[in-house]
Specification:
heterodimer, A: about 425 residues, alpha/beta, D-Maltodextrin-Binding Protein, domain 2, 2 domains, seven-stranded mixed sheet, three-stranded antiparallel sheet, 19 helices, 12 strands, globular, B: about 325 residues, mainly alpha, MetI-like fold, two-stranded antiparallel sheet, flat, Bact_solute-bd_prot1 (chain A)
Chain lengths: ~425, ~325
């Protein structure tokens, strides 16, 4: 009797569970849809709070549930979601190869891409091969790229003119010697992790590569043993082997350790980004806007066609996941991200460079560093850093650590980079 | 016709022992068997679901070639042959061997400390609690903590310089070997408390009189350790050895993640971390699985001797 009753209860329970599962799937018609968004919160917590509030206010039927993950841990969290084809409805990746590598996780926008992105300055970084004629997998709303921030007080203490930061490689070397004599670190650097690959490599590469070379880097057809790329590696090596960076660079991360050195006022320069974290806004808060300077990375070959350009790239690209059962709501959200309302939130709270052309110019920050960045970004070029595959970025970072510690020559580093290129799944596929 | 119940004489020879009479099955025996099976079944199902199935899935994936997170195709043994040409894989297993070489320290150090506590050395109550505390701290937090402690200008080097040991104030995480052994030392710091507790549990089973008798006979600390404690504690030592042999590489993962990310260069790259990197950052699932299977074999070979020894010890009949 008891067994029969138990079996009855179990069967009823299972039936109820099956019914609930069946009902919970697609966009619910009888209540708000909850979109799960995986993000590293570019622009900061406050900006994303505003995104949630503003979007939900304008879209009564959709609620946002943010899963926030620190940027440096993001790939490790996102990877298992993609492998298991489950998880958030909307996710982000950096524009370029990082997004292309994961394109199978996103729904291509198809014909909707042009309509959604009509007010954006550019969105090619969200599309295959930086070609808007090919499938696009998401929507960017910010512009990103690398600059060299400097602490005017440290330069002054070293006897340098803070209004005339070093413009050439030789001048930078001389400035570093002066800064070191003043007892400070010249360039704050953390080589553990792949940030240096994304941030510093393109700034050297602009002095040796053409835009065609950068596209070849993306396609995996430019060998790392090519003299141009070997020269890039050689100059990267100089940064640490000449003692321009902090000694513990190989064993610390750029975020937060390397950036902390600069924010504490212990270093003259830091090579980071213009939007999201560790940008002019964060450094301005730490050092004071009046003490923060911004310049282009020093030029090595002034005659190089891209030497005076800005390595720019769309920032985080948000796309709807293949496995989402709320694709329509997801599309509404990413379309809103590309719009004017979010563009203005991005400027106001994220303190970043917007991609939307219709953003009210009066809202743009008045910080001298931000204004200088407006000058620098006016002449953009392709960003060589985002063309690197996972194995290449990893080998670049590890090789740089080893070269710094005297365990590897530049030629061997180039060999390792070539091996990394050859075992890059996406680039292998491209060939 | 009558049927005789008298025993039939052996037609072959009378010297051979009579075959044991087959007993009829006891009625309760089948029920016992079903009860036993029912009790084992949940564990068996869990083991199959969460151990065997992922393992088989891993083996199958290791024979596939995948591009990014897209589809995959059968690649035969390519992923395995590729490993022999991949310096990162070879270095990771070489590093693993170096880590394994530290196993004696993992086994002996907690034993010595456990014996010191067991014989109630001064402050034993305090140390019994303190030794276990690191084990309760999440390894990722331990990693973050030691990143500060081991920094070139961190507290450890400051202390060494303060006491006049300047030459020992190394750049712990920057050197090829110092980074790996620093990592092992941090892992040991984090996990040795578990070993001390394990040994203390084993020591509690040794009669006090044995140790007292050895003490009265004039045996010193190490004599007692070697001649009394170790022989009587062999099953516990074997258990801890198996745990360390199979666990040491896995325990290091969160520390690598938080402390070195396998660097500088490949100095602290271990197969476990490489599996993770290859699968989730390089998006090469097939190859990542192949490295994972190689690691499984490596650990299995390493553990098999200890497990066999432990089994022998555990099934040995008392004399």
């Amino acid at each position: 009797m008891f067994r029969r009753r138990l079996a009855g209860v179990l069967a009823a329970g299972m039936a109820a569970a099956a019914l609930l599962t069946a009902c919970g799937g697609d966009d619910a018609a009888d209540g708000p849809v909850t979109l799960k968004v995986l993000t590293w919160e570019p622009g900061g917590v406050e900006y994303w709070k505003q995104v949630k509030t503003s979007f939900e206010a304008g879209h009564q039927g959709i609620k946002l549930e943010m899963q926030s993950v620190p940027f440096d841990k993001y790939p490790e969290v996102q990877g298992p979601y993609i492998t298991s084809q489950s998880g958030p409805d909307v996710m982000a990746n950096n524009a370029g190869l990082e997004l292309f590598d994961r394109r199978g996780a996103y729904v291509p926008l198809g014909d909707k891409a042009a309509e959604i992105t009509k007010d954006l300055v550019t969105y090619s970084g969200a599309c295959e091969g930086f070609d808007t004629g090919k499938p696009c997998y998401g929507v960017p709303f910010s512009y990103q790229g690398n600059v060299l921030y400097y602490n005017k007080a440290v330069l002054t203490a070293a006897g340098l003119d803070p209004e005339q930061p070093p413009a050439t490689w030789d001048e930078f070397g001389a400035a570093c010697e002066a800064v070191k004599k003043a007892g400070k670190t010249c360039l704050a650097l953390g080589l553990s992790g792949t940030f240096p690959a994304y941030w510093d490599f393109p700034e050297i590469a602009r002095n040796y590569l053409s835009e065609d070379d950068i596209r070849a880097l993306l396609a995996g057809t430019l060998s790392w043993k090519d003299p141009k790329l070997v020269a890039v590696l050689g100059k990267l090596a100089e940064i640490t082997t000449k003692g321009w960076a902090n000694k513990n660079a190989p064993s610390i991360t750029m975020l937060p350790d390397g950036a902390d050195i600069f924010q504490r006022g212990d270093a003259a320069f830091a090579g980071t980004i213009i939007s999201d974290a560790v940008n002019w806004e964060a450094f301005g808060k730490a050092l004071g806007d009046d003490k923060l300077g911004v310049t282009r990375w020093p030029t090595i070959n002034p005659a190089a066609p891209l030497a005076g350009k800005f390595s720019g790239i769309e920032g985080a690209v948000y796309g709807v996941t293949q496995w989402s059962e709320k694709k329509q709501a997801g599309l509404e959200f990413i379309s809103w991200l590309a719009g004017k309302e979010n563009g203005e939130l991005w400027v106001k709270y994220g303190k970043g460079q917007p991609l939307n052309k219709t953003v009210d110019k009066a809202l743009l920050p008045s910080s001298p560093a931000f204004l200088k960045i407006q000058e620098l970004v006016a002449q953009p070029t392709l960003h060589a850093g985002v063309m690197l595959s996972g194995p290449e970025a990893d080998a670049l970072a590890r090789g740089w650590q080893q070269v710094t510690l005297g365990q590897l020559s530049v030629d061997k580093w180039a060999d390792q980079m070539q091996q990394a290129l050859e075992r890059s799944p996406t680039k292998k596929q491209g060939k | 016709m009558t049927i005789s119940t008298a025993p039939v004489s052996d037609p072959v020879g009378t010297d051979a022992p009579p075959a044991p009479a087959r007993r009829p099955p006891r009625p309760g025996r089948a029920r016992e068997w079903w009860l036993g099976a029912a009790l084992v079944l949940p564990a068996l199902v869990l083991a199959v679901l969460f151990k065997l199935v992922p393992l088989v899935r891993g083996v199958l994936t290791s024979f596939e070639s995948s591009s990014g997170f897209g589809g995959s195709e059968f690649a035969g043994a390519d992923n395995y042959t590729r490993m022999f040409d991949d310096p990162m894989v070879l270095t990771s297993f070489r590093n693993a061997l170096l880590v394994v070489a530290t196993l004696p320290v993992w086994i002996v150090l907690p034993l010595i400390l456990a014996l010191l506590i067991h014989q109630r050395s001064p402050g034993w109550k305090f140390f019994r609690a303190v030794y276990f505390v690191p084990y309760t701290i999440a390894p990722i937090v331990v990693g973050i903590m030691f990143r500060q402690i081991l920094a070139p200008d961190g507290p450890l080097n400051a202390l060494l310089r303060f006491v006049g040991l300047d030459p020992l104030a190394l750049e712990w995480l920057n050197g090829r070997y110092s980074a790996l052994f620093s990592l092992v030392a941090v892992a040991l710091w984090s996990f040795f408390g578990l070993g001390v507790m394990t040994y203390l549990a084993g020591l509690a089973t040794i009669p006090e009189e044995n140790l007292e008798a050895a003490y009265l006979d004039g045996a010193g600390f190490f004599r007692r350790l070697w001649s009394v404690v170790v022989p009587m504690l062999r099953p516990t030592v074997a258990y801890w050895s198996v745990l360390c042999a199979s666990g040491v590489l896995i325990w290091l993962f969160p520390l690598i993640y938080a402390l070195t990310q396998g660097g500088p260069g490949d100095a602290t790259m271990l197969p476990e971390y490489l599996v993770f990197l290859t699968t989730f950052q390089f998006l090469d699932r097939g190859y990542g699985s192949a490295i994972g299977i190689a690691l499984f074999v490596f650990v299995a070979v390493l553990s098999i001797f200890s497990v066999r020894h432990m089994f022998t010890e555990g099934t040995r009949k008392p004399r």
